[in-house]
Design a protein that fits this description.
alpha/beta, disordered N terminus, about 120 residues, about 35% helix, globular, three-stranded parallel beta sheet, 6 helices
């Protein structure tokens, strides 16, 4: 339904994928946070492969974030010992298993700049 709603061809997946990769319609990506979801390479590869099979355009992992005691994201306090994997190391596992999905690392604004409101 969503594909037809944004003007992409309905029918077989190959036509939809070609339309999305050709710059037509809306493109969707997946952001995977290793601090929240874990760093298991098998899980990363499985999710990226499934995203690619479903026609997602991209798969992103966040960059390292500097955490300090008392760092907060809204109402949640983030432990300074929170493990965040290096995105390039994780994406190297993913790259060996996929063929068309775009891979990248993403940056967030400083947590201290977000404030509570």
């Amino acid at each position: 339904m969503l594909m037809a709603a944004v003007g992409l061809p309905s029918g077989d997946g190959a036509n939809r994928d070609a339309a999305v990769r050709g710059g037509h319609g809306v493109k969707f990506g997946i952001a995977y946070n290793t601090a929240y979801h874990g760093m298991d390479p098998t899980r990363l590869v499985a999710l990226a492969t499934q995203a690619e099979d479903c026609g997602f355009e991209s798969f992103y992992l966040p960059e390292h974030i500097a955490l300090y005691p008392g760092a907060r994201l809204g109402a949640f306090e983030l432990a300074s010992s929170l493990a965040v994997a290096d995105p390039l190391e994780c994406l190297s596992f993913v790259a060996a298993s996929i063929s068309t999905i775009l891979l990248g690392s993403g940056c967030r604004p400083s947590i201290s700049c977000l404030g509570d409101g």
